[in-house]
Amino acid sequence: MLDTLQHSPSLAVGTAAVLGLLVGSFLNVVIHRLPRILERDWARQAAEVRGEAAPALEPYNLVVPRSHCPACGHRIGVLENIPLASWLWQRGKCTACGKAISLRYPLVELAAAALSAAAVWRFGASAAGLGALLLTWALIALACIDFDTQLLPDDITLPLLWLGLLFNLQGVYAPLEAAVVGAMAGYLSLWSVYWLFKLTTGREGMGYGDFKLLAALGAWFGWTALPSVILLASVVGAMVGIALMVFARHGREVPIPFGPYLAGAGLLALYFREPLGALFGIHA
């Protein structure tokens, strides 16, 4: 099968797109449920610290309970759970109560499909292509979770960091030495900014999840990619923040998640690392 995909680029890209649709459907579950799973776990740990009995709760994870409509509780059947097609067939509404289904669901599936196809088109059916798929799916999930909850879960960022180092044992994206330095520099750079801002203003400017995400990107692409990733994320984040304050009356005291911009910059680095590095006169 792998040999067939390697000798037929169009088949490999099409297969990646279909796989991306399926994974995108699962990513919607991760985006919705993982923050709630973490909140339940934190509540249990807090109860243990207080010496209280943990509350008895129904099982809740990425598999249980089955997907259902949040408005009426209708369980989503197999035919209602086909990526993208079901949303279009149902015209974006629950078949039981008619409540609108968020446009987020098909958009995540489409993004996963398009980016998966692009990853295999760029890197082929290879170790680099597999890594690009895993990185892309993780960044989509992290961007959406941070946008919703301002959380970047360790359950995703830390495995992503180790995966980057694992792939670079063979120098798939960067030499191992550059990847290790990139992980350290990525974490320490934002950690330093965090403490400088906190000591200066008495407030927290970002979360620790941002440090870990940038460390993960450094592990994937090496330290040479970090200046362009930080600059791209900062410029786009600042532009969006200013636009929100001007046009949406977004208060300055309301935090804006930085994770989506880091994730977007990471995807750009995946495809355009060398041209972006050339802007800074840095070469891997």
SSE layout and pairings?
Layout: H1 2-7, H2 9-49, H3 85-89, H4 104-123, H5 127-149, H6 154-167, H7 176-201, H8 208-221, H9 226-247, H10 259-279
Helix pairs in contact: 2-4, 2-5, 4-5, 5-6, 5-10, 6-8, 7-8, 8-10, 9-10
Description:
- With 284 residues, this protein is mainly alpha-helical.
- It is built from 10 helices and no strands.
- The longest helix has 41 residues, at 9-49.
- The mean pLDDT is 89.
Q: Detail the poorly predicted runs.
A: none
Assign the structural class, choosing from mainly alpha, mainly beta, alpha/beta, alpha+beta, or little secondary structure: mainly alpha
Beta fraction: under 5%
DSSP strand count:
0
What are the salient characteristics of this protein?
284 residues, mainly alpha, 0% strand
